[in-house]
Amino acid sequence: MNKFENGFMLGASTAAHQVEGNNTNSDYWLMENMEYSQFVEPSLDAVDHYNRYEEDIKMLADAGLNTYRFSVEWARIEPEQGKFDEKEIEHYRKMIKCCRDNGVEPVITLMHFTSPVWLIKLGGWDNEQVVELFANYARFVTEQLGSEIKYICTINEANMRLQIGALMERFKKQMMAKMANAAKSSGDSMEGQVQVGLNLSDPMEKMKLAAMENAKVFGDPQPHTFVSATDANGDMIVIKAHQAAKEAIKAVNPDIQVGITLSLHDCQYIEGGKERADSDWNEEFSHYIPYIKDDDFFGLQNYTRTTYGPDGIVPVPEGTPMTQMDYEVYPEALEHVIRRVHEEMPNVPIMVTENGIATADDKQRVEFIDKAIEGVQSCINDGIPVIGYCHWSLIDNFEWQKGYALTFGLCAVDRKTQIRAPKPSLKHLGGYLK
């Protein structure tokens, strides 16, 4: 095992809503508890990380890891517009202290998909007002916690809204084709084309009823949450929010390292597919470069590859190993994406903020980690400034619309008792540090 040099940040990631439990003021909480919800189950207590974070952080440190990337929940900190909850900010202060006490570097994410309900009622992430509102929130968090942290990710997977927009366009075309009896049975799962847990199995009638319920709850049949489809204008709002938050953070503490994270596929192609592959890579990454090239670091998130042909995305060949998320098992993708990002944005250090595999077989997870880490180390040996690797995820958790069935974690949880059971992969990952 080739080990990382001292100073390399090696750890694991979580997101508040997926692990804390009872985030009752968030948009997701309302949506997952609706009668006609597209969620297969509600989050409820999740894995009770809100109360058990000390145990979880100590578990991470005891395995040999030195970094924990987690998100602070906007809906907890600002449950009503302009009203900040001192008790909740104190909770995250205690989490940061717990990290420090255990020799763990905390990496904070300000926005990991979930938003306060009040924000969505104002028009959510398609309302320009969100730029100022997010900056205000970022400023408050930095004023309260900024002396205790070195790294902040403003927005998790800022390109997710565009990715979902493209996916939904393909979904609509597929549904229309099926209604016209023109669809071919390819066995291709569209849910595996974005790196977030989506459920596209609901019948159209249920979707209509859900839209009616959304109108009652949010005042809009299609509320503009962060994980809803958008266009180029909505995409630019997200980027403006990142830039405004960065400015607010730096005004309070210029020493904090600020970056953004993007969801990136390894865009490969066969004959006739290069133009489409390049176009999708531009949408996923390249068009953001002018807005993030001066950031302190870049948060790179990758799980798999996408292959393009003359007719678009090429279905994965039958018999190819697949994850529980319907991604192709392809850990080599991480190295490819790191190299491509560095080639196009050479002056920004890269932190791998998410990379992992949804599987019930922990031996497969260990093999995935080994191959992914081998790729990271190859990049470092070639002089690419990769400063950290955070595996997704520390704990099996609530995978959004997919619920609890998918297991990404380095640690299992009995959700009846909330008892933790670290998997061999956790200590294996920690073994890569000297």
Structural account:
There is one protein chain. This protein is of the alpha/beta class. It has one domain: TIM Barrel. It is 41% helix and 15% strand. The chain has an 8-stranded parallel β-barrel with strand order 1-2-3-4-5-7-10-11, surrounded by 5 helices. It has a 3-stranded mixed β-sheet with strand order 6-8-9. Strands 12-13 form a two-stranded antiparallel sheet. The longest helix has 21 residues, at 232-252.
Secondary structure elements and their pairing?
Layout: E1 9-13, H1 16-19, H2 27-32, H3 49-62, E2 67-71, H4 74-77, H5 86-101, E3 105-111, H6 117-121, H7 129-145, E4 151-155, H8 160-179, H9 204-218, H10 232-252, E5 257-263, E6 266-269, H11 274-284, H12 289-292, E7 297-301, E8 305-309, E9 312-313, H13 333-344, E10 350-354, H14 362-381, E11 386-392, E12 411-414, E13 419-422, H15 424-430
Parallel strand pairs: 1-2, 1-11, 2-3, 3-4, 4-5, 5-7, 6-8, 7-10, 10-11
Antiparallel strand pairs: 8-9, 12-13
